[in-house]
Design goal:
The structure holds two protein chains of two kinds. Chain A is an alpha+beta fold. Chain A is built from two helices and seven strands, in the order βαββαββββ. Chain A has a single domain, classed as Roll (Ubiquitin-like (UB roll)). Helices cover 22% and strands 31% of the residues of chain A. In chain A, 32% of the residues are buried. In chain B, strands 3, 4, 6, 8 and 9 form a five-stranded antiparallel sheet that branches. In chain B, helix 2 runs antiparallel to helix 3. Chain B is elongated and about 50 Å long. Classes of the chains: A alpha+beta, B alpha+beta. Chains A and B meet through helix 1 of A and strand 4, helix 2, helix 3 and strand 8 of B.
Chain lengths: 80, 138
């Protein structure tokens, strides 16, 4: 399955745009997606931290991702 | 009433205060976050705020639910700006009303502290000689 992944803040600069995509096996977990993203974009691993959001919620590393989910890379937030 | 707004337009602070006021409220606590001229001694030219809007609204909503569970509040107004801001511009306004001041003060403090930790909004500081996404790197 192909997952579209939104990127914000510094993650947008790291992936080179507002979104990127990844071809992943079905029943992929958030942890597997993180590994794939860090292979593709080593700069992600150098951030202080980052989270993956699935359907507008912070996702645990063992959460499963489905093809129609809205997935996003959330680098360290700094609002306010 | 709970009113949450992520906006690319200037925040109307007085409108936030007006929305928070009510005849039952003996206190309105207002936090106004503004753009500071320097960071670690470096002169700031501008800030650029970006939000993951639907998730930011949803995370702010969670904060307001927690606030209403913990304190006897009347109204909570949270407006956050996005886009390019100059020194002195208002980035965020939080207005909280309650019958008595302790609840309003404590809840308002909780709101801004939690917003800074959980809400997907990012700011880039642009200096005379470079730029940096705040908190991105260790």
């Amino acid at each position: 399955m192909t997952i579209n992944i939104l990127a914000f803040g510094i993650a947008k600069e790291i992936v080179g745009g507002a979104s990127t995509s990844a071809d992943l096996p079905s029943h992929t977990t958030v942890a597997q997606l993180r590994r794939r993203l860090e292979e593709q974009y080593p700069q992600l691993g150098k951030l202080a931290s980052y989270m993956i959001a699935v359907n507008n919620e912070y996702a645990a590393t063992d959460s499963l991702i489905n093809e129609q989910d809205e997935v996003a890379i959330i680098p360290p937030v700094s609002g306010g | 009433m709970v009113d949450i707004l992520i906006t690319g337009k200037p925040i109307d602070t007085q409108a936030c205060i007006n929305m928070a006021s009510s005849p039952q409220s003996g206190g309105i606590d207002v936090f106004i976050g503004t753009v500071r001229a320097t960071t670690k001694g470096k002169e700031v030219v501008r800030l650029e705020f970006e939000a993951y809007r639907p998730m930011a609204v949803s995370e702010i909503k969670k904060i307001t639910v927690q606030m209403l569970q913990r304190w006897p509040l009347h109204h909570i107004i949270i407006h956050h700006r996005t886009g390019i801001l100059k020194v002195g511009d208002v980035a965020v306004v939080i207005a909280v009303s309650a019958a008595h001041r302790d609840a309003a003060f404590d809840a308002c403090r909780y709101a801004i502290d939690t917003l800074k930790q959980t809400v997907p909004i990012w700011k880039k500081e642009v200096f005379l000689d470079g730029e940096e996404w705040v908190a991105a790197h260790p």
